[in-house]
Amino acid sequence: QLQLIESGGGSVQAGGSLKLSCAASGGTLIDYYMGWFRQTPVEQRELVATISTRGATNYTDATEGRFTISRDNFRNTIYLQMNNLKPEDTGVYYCRVWGYGADYWGQGTQVTVSS
Fold first, then answer.
1. What is the mean pLDDT of residues 50-55?
2. How far apart are CA 55 and CA 93, in angstroms?
3. Is 107 helix (H, G, I), strand (E, B) or coil?
4. Mean pLDDT of 14-31
5. pLDDT at 14 over 90
6. What is the mean pLDDT of residues 10-18?
């Protein structure tokens, strides 16, 4: 069973950058879809970005052009590079890995963007 541990969250000013990491243990990520989701103070948990097993990426209108999701199958890790952060990006960010009937979530990492 996979375990996911996020890291890299923190507090930044608007316009700043953060890079989140999600390291997996207990299995390999190579055959799974992966994504980042966030829980904001005003929204239910929402999609941030996804990446397929072949590396195809998908973003929302809110994150397109500012965020970049990537995966390193050798290191069993997924990343989220976040640039030009805005106060509305504040929230708890979760990584998710799913496929073959399985669905795993990390514990979340807090991102706070001040204006």
1. 93
2. 21
3. coil
4. 93
5. yes
6. 98
Q: Which two tokens stand for residue 84?
A: 């030009």
Residues with Cβ within 8 Å of residue 2, at least 6 apart in sequence: 24, 25, 26, 27, 29, 97, 102, 104
**Cα 34 to Cα 20: distance, rounded to the nearest angstrom:** 14
What is the per-residue DSSP string for the chain?
A: --EEEEE--EEEETT--EEEEEEEESS--TTSEEEEEEE-SSSSSEEEEEE-TT--EEE-TTTTTTEEEEEETTTTEEEEEE-S--GGG-EEEEEEEEETTEEEE---EEEEEE-
Say yes or no to pLDDT of 28 above 90.
no
Strand partners, 72: 77
Answer for the pair 67, 81: CB distance below 8 angstroms, yes or no: yes
Report the amino acid identity of residue 42.
Answer: V
Count of Cβ atoms closer than 10 Å to residue 66 Cβ: 15
Is residue 28 within 8 A of residue 73, CB to CB? The reply is yes
